[in-house]
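We were asked to recover a plausible sequence for a given structure. The inputs and outputs are reproduced exactly as logged, with field labels preserved.

PROBLEM: sequence recovery
POSITIONS: 106
GIVEN STRUCTURE:
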């Protein structure tokens, strides 16, 4: 191995988590993660070895989903719909704030 290849410093920090890290960060059973992948609600990247890499954003989304499902006794599908709608509301509120700043409205 040529050590000079690494002279530029440590590798850049990734915003992706491997399968085991993702399971630990979300504290969710692997079958639930598999269900969410099958539904297309989360779309991890695939490694050349066939593993999964998940964006950090999905940790927050899954934690929110699990909290809603537990607190309101929702099914997975219902929870996914609610989280998606909450994300849309956040996006729309952000756009409204942006346009208010542009037009100098209170």
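RECOVERED SEQUENCE:
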């Amino acid at each position: 191995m040529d050590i000079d290849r690494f002279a530029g410093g440590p590798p850049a920090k990734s915003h992706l988590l491997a399968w085991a890290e993702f399971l630990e960060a979300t504290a969710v059973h692997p079958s639930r993660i598999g269900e969410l992948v099958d539904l297309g609600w989360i779309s991890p990247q695939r490694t050349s070895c066939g593993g999964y890499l998940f964006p950090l954003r999905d940790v927050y989304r899954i934690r929110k989903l699990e909290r809603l499902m537990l607190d309101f006794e929702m099914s997975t599908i219902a929870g996914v719909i609610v989280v998606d709608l909450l994300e849309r509301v956040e996006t729309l509120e952000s756009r409204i704030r942006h346009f208010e700043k542009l037009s100098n409205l209170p």
